[in-house]
C-alpha cells in the first residue's frame, strides 16, 4: 500500500513539474513576444521621428516592422558608428535606402517574408562564392566586373543572388541591383534601387526573382 502511495505521489510530482515547465515556456514565449512588440514600436517611432520620415523607403520599413511576425531570424539593427565602420571596410558609400533598412529594421534575416537578405557584416561579393566566373559578367550587353558586385544575399533557394551594381554612377547614390542566375551565368532583371526591390518583396511576400521571372525563363519556379 505504501509503495502504491509513493508511486502516486511521485507520478503526481512529475506531472506538476511538467505542467510548471510548460507554463514557464509559455510565459517566456509571451514575454518575448511582448518585448518584440515593444522593440518594433520603438523602431517605428524612431522612423517617424527621424529626418527621413518622408523618404519613400520609410513607409516600406514600417510595413516590414508591422508584419514582423512573418519574418524569421531578423538580425539586430546597426548603429551609425557600425555603418561608418562597414563603409570604411568596404571602401564604399552604401545607398541611403539600404542604410535606413540596416538602421531601423535589421542587418539581415534568413526569412524576410520568403526571401533571404544576407548580413552586410559578411560583406560578400559575387566573386567570393562564385570563383568559377570570369573576371566580367554580362548585363544588358555590357560587361560588369564580378568583384564589384556586392551581394544582397550570398545565395537564394535557386542558387542565384541579387547583387548591387556598385560601380554604376547615379545622381542620388542609389545603386541598382541585378539578379545573378545559375541558369544563364548572367545578371538579369535589373531594378533601379533597393527601394524598388523592397517594394516588390512587400507586394509579393515571396522571392523577388520569382515575381519578376513570371515566365520562368530562369527556372526559378
UniProtKB/TrEMBL annotation:
Q: Which organism is it from?
A: Formosa undariae
Question: What is the protein's given name?
Answer: SMI1/KNR4 family protein
Domain Knr4/Smi1-like, by residue range, is: 77-200
Q: Which Gene3D superfamilies match?
A: SMI1/KNR4-like (3.40.1580.10)
InterPro entries tied to this protein = Knr4/Smi1-like_dom, Knr4/Smi1-like_sf
